[in-house]
Amino acid sequence: MNTTFPRLLQDHAQSRPGDTALREKEYGIWQSLSWSALFTQVNHMAHGFHLAGLARGDHVVVVGANRPRLYAGMLAVQALGGIPIPLYQDAVATEYVFPINNAEVRFAVVENQEQVDKLLDIQPDCASLTHIYYDDPRGLRNYKQAGLFSLSALLHEGENAAAQAPGFLSAQIDACQPDDVAAMFFTSGTTGNPKGVVHTHRSLLDRAQAGADFDHLTNREEVLAYMPLAWIGQNIFSYAQWLCCGYVVNCPESAETITIDLKEVGPTYYFAPPRVFEGLLTNVMIRMEDASALKRRMFHYFMDVAREYGPKRMDGEAIGLWGQLLYGLGDVLVYGPLRNNLGFSRVRVGYTAGEAIGPDLFTFYRSIGINLKQLYGSTETAVFVCLQPDHEARADTVGVPCAGVEIKVADNGEILVKSAGLLKGYYKNPEATAEVLTADGWYHTSDAGFLDAHGHLKIIDRVKDVGRIQGGANDGAMFAPKYVENKLKFFQFIKEAVAYGDGRDKVCVMLNIDFDAVGNWAERRNLPYAGYTDLAQKPEVYQLILDCVEKVNADLAADKLLAGSQISRFLVLHKELDADDGELTRTNKVRRGFIADKYGVLVTALYEGQTQQYIETAVKFEDGRSGSVSATLKLMDAKTFAPVGQAA
After folding, report:
1. Domain region containing 151
2. Residue 202 shares a structural domain with residue 87
3. Using an 8 Å Cβ cutoff, are 159 and 52 in contact?
4. Helix, strand or coil for residue 400?
5. CA-to-CA distance for 6 and 174, rounded, in angstroms?
6. C-alpha separations of 30 from 33, 35, 73, 248, 487 in Å
7. Are 85 and 62 in contact (CB under 8 A)?
8. Are both 33 and 175 inside the same structural domain?
9. Is 647 contained in some domain?
10. Do residue 451 and residue 482 come from a single domain?
11. Are residues 247 and 262 in the same domain?
12. Could you report the per-residue pLDDT of 603-644, keeping only the tens digit for each?
């Protein structure tokens, strides 16, 4: 795509100045910002940054939730030829040190006092960081540190400068070229220091436009921007595609009001990782358990109807007159109110990505009339590699290659991708770049998969994670840990799962219960508990989880390829896996190797057949304090099943 982010902003401001570009909810009221007003704000910020010494090629970290002035800050930086680097706002301060030093960052734009405190805390370790600008002034009145400024002050200075040089911003935008670097995104760093993924205006906007064309997006879409800007998925959907299409991006008031804001906005275009959809479904099931017996019977009856007719209806297949009548009644009594309660009444296109979604979870949403689809991509591919057409959404594929994408499968099963959306490289890391980018332009995804007979891509797991069972009754059987983990996480009572089995004679898993769902279940049974650790080790809870595990095993027995991946033993961890403790990435993916090392005594106990094991674990609290949590964990056997078609 032969344009840039600032030029697209300029085009919208000139062609439709009064149309809404952004909305922000503040004190319970939605405030709108037009394209013209946004352009003016960007103009003033660009002048302010220029006066502060921001030069072409400078890196600027952006830390905070989705906020209009943070979006404006990114556009102003790009207009001057600078490179924004969004970082995760929930990261601990020390996680910012490497990106800031690696990119020699001088400028930071942050949301509020929390982020200011983090940056001031690490500033002695980041010699290049000299300018910190904050959006929300609350709590910062008495901060007098050198180099700390409000965005309001920056805007005021920039407004005065803009009056003296009215053609400055246009000249800067004209100087910005499609192949200039537009942004940098740091990977999660699961195996070492994070890597800076460098993208140009062309690579990001090419993929954003390809996705928009695929789903016929227009400027009439409504989007709720609530995922971290540091995640490239959110950045593409609420920033790159926003500027390509010119639709409205809505910024929620806070993380606590997202559910309410979702219902108020009623987005037409929605994007979330599987974990969000899992959480929404868990809340639905908790509410249904608290409903009257009549409502529960009606819900379960019509959900059976939905499972029978809903997916066919979404795929454009005929369901007959009786099916239409039953589904229509269910839509009035159950599905319609449920979609409204979830905030999905107006969703025309919904996507999930980031990791595989459980097939039952995927089917649930499509059954109730939500056009939920899967896509495949990564930070390095600017997200859009494969997308599912409206009537070809299946739980076991991630869609067909979208416009401008070539895919091939290496001899070891690894997916290789070529497109205009590939990274320019890893920042200051030519060795890592050479490992993933071939001389003829193919990107190594590290994912194992294949194209099926219909041209849809199927992902099995990460190449390095696909293994084999060695020894025992399933010797030589394929083991795909993510596949097993995702099947477990469909159950509302299981929040996280970590599976092991490669090179071993059986599969064992460590689980986190969903504290809200299991807590609600326990309370309705008058089962007392004192916090997560106590609840997780209750015998009744273990029986509840055992039922889930054995249902997964029954499903796996019907899968010829993965029947050997059935779970033989499991335990419920005494604490929730946490990114602050290094157990999850900032995108909430399990760090399987790290967890195996940290909880090695538990892995050993599972494979040695022990029935209980004491463990004490260091933890970090939200306020920065450190502590520990200990417990004697139960370890339990699970029933496995003979593969379907094979004698028991």
Report:
1. 5-272
2. yes
3. no
4. strand
5. 9
6. 10, 16, 21, 13, 39
7. yes
8. yes
9. no
10. no
11. yes
12. 999 999 999 999 999 887 766 678 889 999 999 999 999 987
CB contact at 8 A, 512 and 489: no
What distance in Å separates the CA atoms of residue 507 and residue 472, rounded to the nearest whole number? 11
Nearest to 377 by CA among 210, 264, 160: 210
Dihedral angle sign, alpha carbons of residues 200, 201, 203, 208: positive
Tell me what pLDDT residue 648 has. Answer: 46
Report the interhelical angle of 35-52 vs 151-164 (nearest 10°). Answer: 90
Tokens of 561: 């390829």
List the strands of the sheet with 20-26, edge to edge.
29-34, 20-26, 248-251, 222-224
Nearest Cα residue to 10 out of 79, 101, 113:
79
> How far apart (Å, rounded) are the C-alpha atoms in residues 405 and 437?
15
Residues 364, 281 contacting (CB under 8 angstroms): yes
**Residues 275-293 pLDDT 10s:** 888 888 888 888 888 889 9
Q: Which of 337, 370, 403 is the last residue of a domain?
A: 370
551 burial via Cβ count (<10 Å: 0-12, 13-18, 19+): middle
What is the average per-residue pLDDT within 459-466? 84
633 in any annotated domain = yes
Residue 642 located in a structural domain: no
> What's the number of domains the chain is made of?
4
Domain end residue (candidates: 306, 335, 370): 370
Q: Write the DSSP symbol of residue 138.
A: T
Q: Looking at residues 6-33, what average pLDDT do you find?
A: 96
Token representation of residue 150: 């409000």
CA 125 to chain centre: 30
pTM equals 0.82
Phi, psi of 405 (to 5 degrees): -115, 135
C-alpha distances (whole Å) from 115 to each of 54, 112, 118, 245 are: 21, 6, 5, 31
Is 420 within a domain? yes
Find the helix or strand (DSSP H, E) in which 217 lies.
none
**Sign (positive or negative) of CA dihedral 252, 257, 259, 261:** negative
What are residue 14's phi and psi, to 5 degrees? -85, -40
Q: 297: which 2 tokens?
A: 């019977």
pLDDT at residue 647 greater than cutoff 50: no
> Which pair of structure tokens corresponds to residue 305?
């109807």
What is the enclosing helix (H) or strand (E) of 211?
A: helix 201-214
- How many CB atoms within 10 Å of residue 105? 22
90/65 Cα distance (integer angstroms): 10
CB neighbours of 297 closer than 8 A, spacing ≥ 6?
none
- Which region holds residue 104: left if phi is over 0, alpha if psi is between -120 and 50, else beta? left
Cα–Cα distance for residue pair 505/502, rounded to 1 Å? 8
Phi, then psi, of 5 in degrees rounded to 5: -60, -50
90-139: pLDDT as tens digits = 999 999 999 999 999 999 999 999 999 999 999 999 999 999 999 999 99
Rounded to 10 deg, the angle between the 168-175 and 5-15 helix axes is 130
The torsion region of residue 369 among left (phi > 0), alpha (psi -120 to 50) and beta comes to: left
Q: 238 burial class (0-12, 13-18, 19+ CB within 10 angstroms)?
A: buried
In terms of Cβ atoms closer than 10 Å to its own Cβ (0-12, 13-18, 19+), residue 55 is exposed
CATH of the domain at 411: 2.30.38.10
Same domain, 376 and 508: no
Do 360 and 378 lie in one domain? The reply is: no
